[in-house]
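Data card: per-record layout.
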Amino acid sequence: MVAAPLFTSARPSTSSRRRRSVAFLGTALLVLTACSDQSEPAPTPEPTPTGPIAGVGRNAPLHSVDPAQVAQARELPETYPGSATNAGGPEATVTLRGGERGEDYRHGSVGLSLEATDLADQRLNGDNPDLVSVLDSLNEPTVRFGGNSTDRRFFFTASDEPIPTDWPLNEGEEITKVTPDDLKRVAELAERTNSSVILSANLARYDPERAGELAHHAKEAFGERLVGLMVGNEPNGFYQGAGNDLTIKGPGWDQETYAKQLTAYAKAIHDKVPTLRIVAPAAYSADWWNTAADAPNTDPMALAVHQYPLSECGTQWEHQQPTVANAVDPATRNNIDRLVDDAARDAAEHNLPLWITETSLSACSGSNEITETQVAAVHQAEYSMRVQEHGAERVAAHSSLAPCRGGAPMSVLCSSGTLANPGEAFSVRANGLALALIASIPEGNMVETSTSTENLTSYAVEHGNGTVSVVLTDYRDPATAKDRTTNLTLPYRVDYATQSQLRGPSWTAEYPVASLFEDHASDSGGPSTTATGGASGAAASASSAPEYPADPDVALSVERALHTAPRNAVSVDGYGLPITPVGERPRVGGMKAGSKNFSVTLPAGSTTVLTLKKTQPSPSPQESQ
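The structure for this 625-residue chain is written out next.
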């Protein structure tokens, strides 16, 4: 099945109208000047170089412009293409319930997890345009620094100590030193992007006082943006048998020893920063997270859980292997629910918030049929809503600053260059688009929904301003299944709904990150009108007009944002970042104002966000006077 082009437009482009106006004004000024002054004309100043949007310079990074400006330059249609009901196709139903509201949905609930050693990466700064744009797209995200490097290669020092020489390292590994200056640099990025931060202390190299020093300097650097300090990473995996590359403790390592050390770390941390939240155990085992929750003198604390649903990297458990079939199987979603429900129940019993500080569809090393793909993106979008409905307050998708070529395939973002020579430019992968789409949903309270079939999931968020967001994920095969008419039944009347959609032509389609690192001048004639999104007036004109090289340090530029994605690529509404703001999105076709029921046609293998505008009750005669 081939996706039909979206968002084509026959209207004259905004940029064309603007150029005609500017040309007319320039001619008039020249005539007036010639009539009033017969002397030698003054030299005409060179025009200021501008990009495809008026008042915005060439290669401007996305964070420097209002996403609404980009949406307007894309000239999206008033009605979302293909959203109106198609007769004769398959059908499904979604029901929104009224009554008591459920879990909070808040900004900061969606974010990234990076390695603790990434704190030393000089590219991680407030002046990196692409990193600022990525974090801005996640709308006040949580950024957690941890991962396996925390207990194996992360060395914090406030006094410029030499790097230890007695740590056991695997071949090719080296210790990374992080200093207070690194924390200050990263804090500038957090401040600029309004991000919350979780740091991690090395537990394997037992040193509570050093953890206290880290807490002290982190609090000085990040201030209130520092929401927690994690003690170690996945202590349940410290001993995995002799000869295992991840083993860093002996066979005597157990939960009792861990609990004692966690208490010692908490005391040292709270001696320096009394109110700083301890985050533990960052584990995927209920026994270990209950051990952490029961450890004495650790308040305040957050219960940290990790979950990688399809991380059977061998052959033992076929239903947990990283395959497309397992990724879309309802059994995988049931397994997710069981673990998160257990964690949420245990957190509630200990009066602790639940944070999922590492997650992805799979943690198996290397590439496989689900990494970097549409199925991973759909999972990430659906998972981000699912676990919040089950009580998780913060969710961090594990990521890397490594290059797209050779870096971790599951990472939400990746950089230009190579492993030997990484570049300054960054882009998101397909799962990064998914996170940005979910992060675009305004804050509110989740309300109960249900669907008529297990291959369609639904979530809804009431915003308290007369609007409701509905997230629908269709798990049918996008390469073979037909579009499906989905009927929504509501407890209130709505005037209209707008739509934004993550989709791709197959489960294994990817977002073309490599193209964002290419020179603008290499493009010929702008984006293809056969792309998934279809080139519309201003976007086509703006994309084909530039004849100047791209900034090699800016992948996420305004110019690139006006390029539609290729037909075979994953996209949101036919494009990459930025996600179209709610107020600029096209409406669902065929809706009747004031209805409590309406239908929308959804493609297979997609995640769709609908924003419903409730009908406002008419004022009483007394109110209208």
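Known properties of this structure: Residues 14-36 form the longest helix (23 residues). The mean pLDDT is 87.

See the next section for split statistics.
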